[in-house]
Prior knowledge:
Layout: E1 4-8, H1 13-24, E2 28-35, H2 53-66, E3 70-74, H3 76-92, H4 99-118, E4 123-125, E5 130-133, E6 136-139, H5 148-151, H6 156-160, E7 162-163, H7 171-180, H8 202-210, E8 215-218, E9 224-228, E10 252-257, E11 262-266, E12 273-283, E13 293-298, E14 305-315, E15 318-329, E16 337-342, E17 349-360, H9 362-365
Parallel strand pairs: 1-2, 1-4, 2-3, 4-7, 8-11
Antiparallel strand pairs: 5-6, 8-9, 10-11, 12-15, 12-17, 13-14, 13-16, 14-15, 16-17
Helix pairs in contact: 1-2, 1-7, 3-4
Protein name: tRNA-specific 2-thiouridylase MnmA
Main location: cytoplasm
Enzyme class: transferase
Amino acid sequence: MTLRVLAAMSGGVDSAVAAARVAEAGHDVTGVHLALSKNPQSYRTGARGCCTVEDSHDARRAADVIGIPFYVWDMSEEFDREVVSDFVSEYEAGNTPNPCLRCNEKIKFEAVLDRAIALGFDAVATGHHVRKVDGRLVRSVDAAKDQSYVLGVLTAEQVRHAMFPLGDCTKEEVRAEAERRGLSVADKPDSHDICFIADGDTAGFLNRRLGERPGEIRDEEGNVLGTHRGAHTFTVGQRKGLGLSGSPDPRYVLSIEPVGNTVTVGPRAALKVDGITGRRPVWNGCEPLTEPTECRVQLRAHGEVYPATVRQREGADGPELEVRLAEPATGVATGQAVVVYDGATGDTVLGSATIAATVRAAAAAS
């Protein structure tokens, strides 16, 4: 069956090859590039593969080679509201957000998909490295490039209307295919870092948005060890940039208290947690797990996978996810996502939630 497919083309090699594969399969494909900034020069430049002026030109050239119509959609207002402003407010609240995950959730698979469906398209295709098997998200065959974690926030309906043509191949195979197809982005570097922070200085960006807010750095007993320029510039697990000296043992950020503007530090062992509470659970690979279920969970993009017992329960503000890790994890930050995978292979996404709280492991608390 021929489908009308909107191919999201970032200007990188992955989305170009994805669009080419969908077109070659006989579908009616239209390419679209998302303009995410009113002032593109303020975003990272230099062929980064995401959000730059060069990227829109690269996407257009790829569409010309493939032979499909191409448009640019201005999504800058939605991006600023849903991704940039959310990024700032989450740090201000003492959390550590993942802007790429938020962009997938709110821009690429909500705003874009809604518009695509309204225009009569059947599906949206992207260059994400993930498979869709029997309507569920499954890890890519290329473990190093797997992006199932950043797509774990999607709803079942969004997954139903999504196409991921690259999940069955490696990045090296994608580049080789791009070369064979005559796509000029074949050797283009992958995108890294945060696209809307041009110089890569996250702390400086947050200080410009929120202003410097000097406060105290304390140990777990409440002793003042030093000062900082803003609690919003720290994240749980951080070691560098604390500005502390005089201790033979390294210290890590254990918690951030935004109201009192206080950062608490301590030994690495104190970072270990074995319990997690997640807010706003989303189930895209199964019905809500209301009974304790053996699963596997991932707590950061490309992070370690942990065996865990997972269930959804009713909390004070609605459904929440309860996760009990079989072994402690370190550096777990609120604001990140906990993505739940099946317990058998750990490859199939079941759902996700935003980490709201953690419980320190008994051994670390003693």
